[in-house]
Q: What sequence folds into this?
């Protein structure tokens, strides 16, 4: 059974405070504790979010030897979805430079 969601996970009106995290799979990560949502940004600009993640799960993610492996073995079990370019632009008021969806 897949936990990937078509609809909202968390609240699309929150601005995500990104933390740079350079790895072979991710460029930025973030966590909104009040929503219990972990956000990740991939090198191509794609953003993904994982719902119902406790602070302990966030801390385990941050300290994982491999962030990509941790996503595959732990976070993918949570309801998750891709954040659309339109959603990110509406929240931030702009589309980030270099975003594959930018015109």
A:
């Amino acid at each position: 059974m897949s936990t990937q969601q078509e609809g909202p996970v968390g609240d699309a009106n929150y601005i995500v405070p990104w933390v740079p995290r350079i790895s072979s799979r991710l460029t930025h990560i973030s966590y909104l504790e009040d929503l219990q949502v972990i956000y990740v940004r991939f090198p191509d600009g794609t953003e993904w979010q994982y719902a119902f993640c406790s602070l302990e799960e966030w801390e385990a993610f941050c300290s994982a030897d491999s962030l990509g492996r941790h996503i595959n073995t732990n976070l993918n079990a949570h309801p998750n979805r891709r954040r659309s370019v339109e959603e990110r632009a509406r929240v931030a008021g702009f589309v980030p430079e270099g975003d594959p969806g930018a015109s």
